[in-house]
Automatic annotation (TrEMBL):
<dbReference type="InterPro" id="IPR000885">
    <property type="entry name" value="Fib_collagen_C"/>
</dbReference>
<dbReference type="GO" id="GO:0005581">
    <property type="term" value="C:collagen trimer"/>
</dbReference>
<protein>
    <submittedName>
        <fullName>Col11a1 protein</fullName>
    </submittedName>
</protein>
<dbReference type="Pfam" id="PF01410">
    <property type="entry name" value="COLFI"/>
</dbReference>
<feature type="domain" description="Fibrillar collagen NC1">
    <location>
        <begin position="1"/>
        <end position="101"/>
    </location>
</feature>
<dbReference type="GO" id="GO:0005576">
    <property type="term" value="C:extracellular region"/>
</dbReference>
<keyword id="KW-0176">Collagen</keyword>
<keyword id="KW-0964">Secreted</keyword>
<dbReference type="GO" id="GO:0005201">
    <property type="term" value="F:extracellular matrix structural constituent"/>
</dbReference>
Length: 101
């Protein structure tokens, strides 16, 4: 099973932070089974297809692909952006269809 998640950033880090050279600000996804999908501390880590949101002043998209054999992880039901506290920040998102083929 697989599903894409696209984070559209404006002055917000989505996955890798070039300024901090790490993943402390990476967003966290929530699967149907209430399990988190994130860079670390979880059983499942997404594949990064594109990461244009590495800089704090970035405007672009980060596309993550969640691929799993555990069908209860999908569909994605929620997410938590961790770099979203300043008034000049904004984000959008697109969630692709879950494919169980």
């Amino acid at each position: 099973a697989h599903q894409n998640f696209t984070y559209i950033c404006s002055n917000s880090v989505a996955w890798y932070s070039a300024a901090e050279q790490g993943y402390a600000q990476s967003l966290r996804l929530l699967g149907e089974n209430d399990m988190e999908i994130a860079h670390e501390g979880t059983d499942l880590k997404p594949e990064v297809l594109r990461d244009e949101c590495q800089q704090p002043n970035a405007h672009g998209e980060t596309v993550l692909l969640v691929r799993t054999k555990r069908l209860n992880y999908l569909p994605l039901v929620d997410f938590y952006p961790q770099d979203f506290a300043r008034t000049d920040q904004a984000f959008g998102f697109k969630v692709g269809p879950a494919c169980f083929k």
